[in-house]
Structure formats: C-alpha cells, structure tokens
C-alpha cells in the first residue's frame, strides 16, 4: 500500500536530516536546493513512481531525471532510503574515491543519467519519453528542473520538441523556490511567464505547493493532465525548507553548516519529527 501523506512527511524530515549530515561531514554540497526539493523527491520515489529498487534497469520502470543536479545530496539520500543502495554508502560522500560525486552520475544504482551541467535534463527526458512512445511502453518520465536553471535556453528547445511529439508520457517539474546561486531569479533573468512559455510549446500546466504531500502526490499521479500534451508542474517551494536559518537565503545554495549550525538544524528537524509522530 502506498504510504500516507503523514508517513511521507516523516520520510522527508528524515531525508532532510540525512542530507544535512552528508553535507556537514563531507564538507560540501548543495544545501538550499536539496532541502527545497526533498518533498518532491520523496513523493515521486515513495508514492508515485513505478520502480523496482532491486532491479534498477527493469525495462518498464518509470524514469526520473534530476536536471537540477545541484541538489544531488537529497537525491542520494532518497535513493538509499528507497533501497537502491545501502545507507553506509552515503557516509562516503565527500571522500576520495566515493561513488557519490557532487553531481548525479549514472554509475550510482537508480540514477539514469549524468546531470548537473544545467539545461540538459529535459532534452534527455524528452528522448526517453519519445522512445517509450515508439516502443509502445507505458512508463512515465519525470524531469525535475530548477528555476535558476531556466536561464538555459536549451530547456525551451526540449519543451518545443516534447510538445511537437505530443509526449503525454512526460512530466516536467520546476522546483520554484525563486532563488538561484547569485540571488532572486526575477532579478537575474525573469521567468514568471513560464506558464505561458510551456503552454505555447503545447504543454498542459498546473501549479501546486511543493511542500504539501497531499498536493504533490495528487498532482504527480494525475499525469497526463491532457491527452496528447506533456505535463508541467510549477511546484512552489522555499529554498532551504525545513531549517529556519537556511530558508530563503541564497548564501545557503552551497554552504556547509558549522558544528553549531548543524546541531541547531538537527534539533529543528528532530522537533518536526516528534510533532509528526504525536499529531
Ligand atoms: Mg532555485
């Protein structure tokens, strides 16, 4: 049976603790973006996607591409928790010869494609979805993108191609936290007209609270929103979500917490877990 929203919220709080521990102990990582996308990843991997962790190459699996490779720590934590590899592997993060690089690499079980050179993931996902159509497969393809990433024009080329080929087996998701490494997206390169752009390319667009498990699971399960059109979800999020002093601060895009900050963050997340266990 699929886990309840409350169970998914507990999982997400645990993922936040795990990714912060990786970043703290490994002395590097994408803190703000991993925290903002944690709920989306948990909803996909624990509720929505049809996958087999013990058989990562199962031909009929749903596909996922983390186009915004700049939140790989949360991705690794989710894959491990879902059973693709042992939790102890996460402890190697940040050490020499660790299989876990600073951006996604497809040598890690469960990861389809290398990413993190921004702007490429939607093209890869479009190819996977087109292959699925040509092969008469019923799998779905999910691509998670950043909002800062939408400064990359290549995403719009992929959006046009996906619309042209009527890839209604493709779902694009934007982690719309309104921040990128150097500041507010609307000050750096305005993308508030994103809905119009995707609709102009033939996509069906919906919006949701990217931290609400009820909304995320409902909307992610809905695809395709319209037959013959790829689906696009604008998931409104908070960069650094879950840790008060990390939220909404671009400086935490790639900042490592001090020992004191790490302890404070763990205490906040432990309190959240206690709340979730007692409500
Ligand atoms: Mg962002």
Features:
binds magnesium ion; 12% strand; two-stranded antiparallel ribbon; alpha/beta; 279 residues; Rossmann fold; single chain; 10 helices
Task: Characterise this structure.
With 279 residues, the chain is α/β, with parallel strands linked by helices. It has a single domain (5-278), classed as Thiamin diphosphate (ThDP)-binding fold, Pyr/PP domains (Rossmann fold, 3-Layer(aba) Sandwich), CATH 3.40.50.970. It has 10 helices and 7 strands. A hairpin with a 2-residue loop joins strand 4 (179-180) and strand 5. Helix 1 (5-26) crosses helix 3 and helix 1 (5-26) runs antiparallel to helix 10. The two termini are 22 Å apart. The structure holds magnesium ion. Magnesium ion is lined by residues 146-148, 177, 179-180, 239.
Which CATH architecture is right? 3-Layer(aba) Sandwich
Low-confidence stretches: none
Helix content: 40-55%
Task: Please provide the ordered H/E string of secondary-structure elements.
Answer: HHEHHHEHEEEHHEHEH
Number of helices: 10
- Strand ordering within the main sheet: 1-2-3-7-6
CATH topology: Rossmann fold
Biggest sheet architecture = 5 strands, parallel
Rg result: 18 Å
**Bound compounds, please?**
magnesium ion
Concise summary:
The protein has 279 residues and is of the alpha/beta class. It is built from ten helices and seven strands. Magnesium ion binds at residues 146-148, 177, 179-180, 239.
